[in-house]
Design brief:
The chain is an alpha/beta fold and 342 residues long. The protein is 46% helix and 17% strand.
């Protein structure tokens, strides 16, 4: 068994795939690198096959019909042989010194009678054209270098958001949660983060800047104009997350206060982002969609809706009239300027 499987969803990635794979190869024989070629029309498969031939037993190419990012992650997970599983997008990369520390940490976990379920690490916003890079860390949120449970203090603030880039799951946790991401849908990384979380019993925070998250390309899904264009997919993911939360709550799986708070803060931020994109779009149809997503939250779980709606973000996103929407947008733009998240 490999120590770590790294799935690399790849679609028309010829311009940056080599940079990504070169950053992963120092993991050597401990690591399985699965390049999931998601129906690319360019040289992605050719580049991947060259690495597969040069590094047999380390790099493997899995080519499939186009199904979107979620489908590629599903395929990677289905073929994973590693004790742990991480997704690295083909336009991103990892930092080598942090990578070595991550592997040493996972190796220690593998020797435990009960291996740790979730490794949390920092990521860096590697924004195109910006010299000073924003690091997302979890200082003060949880104790470093310690195996924790949800009974321990794990409390991120709203601006210490955990993304797929932060997490390395024990592979069996993902399989226990029956994770199956929707196909042909953007933003499913949010489901990847939330659906397995109640199955996680132990968490470990390694304070290293492991993942370099490249943002700033005009065609990226986190680009503001692209998010507005694809807002229906964002809404779909929001609804799936609301359904997941309601299901877990009904089954008593969110009894741990810190776990419940973690998921609440995440959904709070998701509802905020979706709402602000619809407010920025500003037309009648978009504002109707904004009302509809909040109505859906109320229908699925009325009590949880009240928590979301009357928390600071929910209040801010639902300020009445043009003046209220103006305040919402300018508050968002200020936060974006400070944190640089798209």
């Amino acid at each position: 068994m490999k120590l770590l499987t790294i799935a690399v969803p790849s679609y028309n990635s010829e311009a940056y795939l080599e940079r990504c794979i070169e950053s992963l190869l120092p993991g050597g024989e401990q690591v399985e690198i699965l390049i999931v070629n998601d129906g690319s029309k360019d040289r992605t498969e050719e580049i991947g096959k060259a690495y597969e031939a040069k590094y047999p037993g380390i790099v493997r190419v899995i080519s499939k019909e186009n199904g979107g990012h979620g489908s590629a992650v599903n395929t990677g997970l289905a073929h994973a042989t590693g004790l742990y599983f991480k997704v690295v997008d083909s336009d991103d990369k990892v930092e080598i010194n942090a990578y070595r520390k991550v592997l040493k940490t996972l190796e220690r976990f593998s020797k435990r009678e009960e291996p740790v379920d979730l490794l949390l690490t920092n990521y860096v916003y590697d924004k195109q054209g910006v010299r000073r890079k924003k690091v997302m860390n979890y200082h003060g949120a949880l104790k470093k270098n310690t195996v924790l449970t949800w009974d321990d203090r794990i409390r991120m603030n709203h601006f210490q958001y955990v993304l797929m880039h932060s997490v390395t799951y024990r592979t069996e946790i993902l399989r226990q949660s029956k994770l199956q991401l929707p196909e042909h849908t953007f933003y499913v990384d949010n489901i990847f983060l939330i659906q397995p979380m109640p199955y996680v019993k132990t968490v470990y925070y390694l304070d290293v800047n492991f993942y370099l998250y490249y943002i700033g390309r005009s065609d990226q899904s986190v680009n503001e104009s692209v998010m507005i264009k694809r807002i229906d997919q964002q809404i779909r993911v929001n609804k799936i997350l609301l359904d997941i939360q309601a299901d877990y709550e009904s089954r008593g799986m969110l009894a741990k206060r810190n776990l419940d708070r973690f998921i609440f803060q995440y959904l709070d931020m998701m509802m905020c982002v979706t709402s602000i994109m619809l407010i920025i779009a500003g037309d009648k149809e978009s504002l109707a969609k904004k009302k509809e997503i909040w109505d859906y939250a109320k229908k699925v779980n009325p009590g949880y809706y009240k928590r979301l709606r009357y928390h600071v973000f929910g209040i801010t996103m639902n300020l009445p009239g043009k003046g209220g929407r103006w305040l919402s947008v300018h508050g968002y733009k200020l936060m974006n300027k400070i944190f640089g998240f798209n």
